[in-house]
Amino acid sequence: MSEAPETSPATSRRTLLCGAAAVLAAGGAVAVTGCSSSSSGSSDKSSAAAQGPVDLGPASAIPEGGGKVFREQKIVVTQPTAGQYKAFSAKCTHAGCIVDQVNKEQIQCPCHGSRFGIADGAVQDGPAPSPLPAYTVTVEGGNLKVTPS
Hints:
23% of the residues lie in helices and 32% in strands. The protein is built from 2 helices and 10 strands.
């Protein structure tokens, strides 16, 4: 009668635990990377800058004392006073979320409550450590042209 070789329960348990640890570590690295606020390649910025100015449509779409978020382009444009336009990165400096609205003269981030000034992008409230990066904005033929810098 032949017997099946014995496998050590400690070995298979160790292998299982090591494999699970590796999967968890890889998953954690992916999750952390997705929320990272570092810009170690800054592909959003460099690709937009390589394309030159971005046309965001009519300047008349930006309310005085308010602004508009261009989510796809990751740009927010404000008009603090009549005819004065400002443009900023729409990527929050806290965790990299995209700001979602301009309300009560503040650019607002939905993730952790950071608030930025519409005139200078300065942090007014929340955990954000620094202002929103400013971009160059001009009005040409009635349209907004923004150059990420």
